[in-house]
Specification:
The protein is mostly helical and 495 residues long. It has a domain at 409-495: Serine Threonine Protein Phosphatase 5, Tetratricopeptide repeat. Helix content is 66%, strand content 0%. The chain is built from 25 helices and no strands. It has helices at residues 2-23, 26-41, 54-58, 115-120, 134-141, 162-166, 169-182, 186-199, 205-217, 221-234, 238-250, 254-267, 272-284, 288-301, 306-318, 322-334, 340-352, 356-368, 373-390, 393-406, 411-423, 427-440, 445-457, 461-474, 479-494. Helix 12 packs antiparallel against helix 13, helix 17 packs antiparallel against helix 18 (356-368) and helix 24 packs antiparallel against helix 25 (479-494). The N and C termini lie far apart (122 Å). InterPro entries: BBS8, TPR-like_helical_dom_sf, TPR_rpt. This is Tetratricopeptide repeat protein 8. Residues 1-23, 75-133 are annotated as: Disordered. Pfam families: TPR_8 (PF13181). Keywords: TPR repeat.
Length: 495
């Protein structure tokens, strides 16, 4: 009896093995594993990577209002009601946003006003070469998928029966990720996701999220919003909230995005990614006080969050609290962050906190860790500020010259060199430097104001008035610019 029972159990096991093999045969399992491995090689997190190309910025057809109410738009500078810092306190990008403490997509320059500015402005932290469209950006990120294979491509999408594979739940999701991320074929990915959603009877939230990602990549933001909303109705997920908030930010609806994040926090209390999203929006809207409060909430949930620590430290530095900023940057150093930017910030904080023994050693370490000419130019520019602070104008002149040697488009270095040249009595050289700085960075008020002052001193009142008007456009609350304009208008009225 025991032998017959044993035979029965073995038959049952073999039958179960056959059933499992029929669900996903060995060949399909290996195929699925290789597909997943190839996808992981070039995987891009759609939540963090969000890059608007020049085409999306200048040819945007989804604008809601040309004249937005204050505090309701990310695209118009100076619309904040939160008492944000002025350009005299904290440097601004050309879109009117304060420079953030952590480099993220779209924080380098903001939204340019003209096509000429869009072409001139660096699109990322490491290159000045503009990206013509967001699709080009994703192709560049996924360059591993374009490597030639001796045996041809692993999957020939043109010969693939999408309808057949969409009906296999064990393989369809892996295949979709391969098509979307490895091949960057959004059209086929969209068709495949639509077939799989239909096969799932429109009840699978995961496929609706993938449909939304495809629509978003294609620039169809309203269709993406519908899919993400429908996915949230089926299943509350943090990623879905993040994707939907990206849609609203691209549609220039920051208030709706904030409400969505807060709705997500009701379902996922204390979720660090949702709190970070709220803080980023407040920061982009120039509401630094609220942004700092939310970054502090992020640190209560995750005390190793690098972005929150860096942004809080940057805010303390620009509000003349260098000692407190130094503590935050030292915390990053303790966490293992070891790069040029951190040591540059440590050097500045030590200098303004009057810890001079650590200043030069921090800058030396920063110079040893530079990875690009732009970083080296910024470090030498900051060393020039340190030299001005200690009164060594010769060293400052050399530092600013070195900054221009590594980055010939460094507008701030041109401006400061112009001031030093003027102290030496070289008026024509100073004027040339100021004009160069004003043309390279029209959103900075200092070159325009300095040019207006210089032109007034040498008697060129018309040029002084034009430069003062540009300075007023860049920084309307600047008192010295207002005084120059007032005196010039009185003088013109007397003529």
């Amino acid at each position: 009896m025991s032998q017959s029972v044993l035979k029965l159990s073995q038959n049952d096991l073999s039958r179960e093995r056959k059933e499992s093999d029929s669900a996903l045969p060995i060949s399909e399992a290996a195929w699925s594993l290789k597909t997943r491995a190839l996808t992981e090689m070039v995987y891009i997190d759609e939540v963090d990577v969000d890059h608007e190309g020049i085409a999306e910025m200048m040819l945007d057809e989804s604008s809601i209002a040309q004249v937005a109410r204050p505090g309701t738009s990310l695209r118009l500078p100076g619309t904040s009601q939160g008492g944000g810092p002025s350009p005299a306190v904290r440097p601004m990008t050309q879109s009117g946003r304060p420079i953030t403490g952590f480099v993220r997509p779209s924080t380098q320059s903001g939204r340019p006003g003209t096509m000429e500015q869009a072409i001139k402005t660096p699109r990322t932290a490491h290159t000045a070469r503009p990206v013509t469209s967001s699709s080009g950006r994703f192709v560049r990120l996924g360059t591993a998928s374009m490597l030639t294979n001796l045996d041809g491509p692993f999957i020939n999408l043109s010969r693939l029966n999408l309808t057949k594979y969409a009906q296999k739940p064990n393989m369809s999701k892996t295949l979709f990720e391969y098509i979307f991320h490895h091949e960057n074929d959004v059209k086929n990915a969209l068709d495949f996701a639509a077939l799989a959603t239909e096969h799932a009877q429109f009840k699978d939230w995961w496929w609706k999220v993938q449909l939304g990602k495809c629509y978003y990549r294609l620039g169809l933001h309203r269709e993406a919003e519908k899919q993400f909303r429908s996915a949230l109705n089926h299943q509350e997920m943090v990623d879905t909230y993040l994707y939907l908030a990206k849609v609203y930010q691209r549609l220039d609806q920051p208030i709706t995005a904030l409400n969505l994040f807060k709705q997500g926090l009701d379902h996922f209390p204390g979720e660090a990614t949702l709190l970070t999203g709220i803080a980023r929006i407040h920061e982009e809207m120039n509401n630094i006080t609220s942004a700092t409060e939310y970054y502090k909430d992020v640190l209560k949930q995750d005390n190793t969050h690098v972005e929150a620590i860096a942004c809080i430290g940057s805010n303390h530095f620009y509000t003349d609290q260098s000692e407190i900023a130094l503590r935050f940057y030292r915390r990053l150093l303790q966490m293992g962050v070891y790069n040029c930017q951190l040591y540059n910030n440590l050097g500045l904080c030590c200098f303004y906190a009057q810890q001079y023994d650590m200043t030069l050693s921090s800058f030396e370490r920063a110079l040893a860790l530079v990875s690009s000419d732009e970083e080296q130019a910024d470090v030498w520019y900051n060393l020039g500020h340190v030299a001005v602070g200690i009164g060594d104008l010769t060293l400052a002149y050399q530092c600013f010259k070195l900054a221009l040697a590594f980055n010939n488009d460094h507008a701030e270095a041109y401006n400061n060199l112009a001031v030093l040249e003027l102290r030496k009595g070289r008026i024509e050289q100073s004027k040339a430097f100021l004009q160069t700085a004003a043309s390279l960075a029209p959103h900075i008020y200092e070159p325009h104001y300095n040019l207006a002052t210089l032109a007034e001193k040498i008697g060129d009142l018309q040029s002084s008035y034009a430069a003062a008007q540009k300075a007023e456009d860049a920084f309307p609350e600047h008192v010295d610019t207002q005084q120059i304009l007032k005196s010039l208008r009185q003088h013109f009225a007397e003529l």
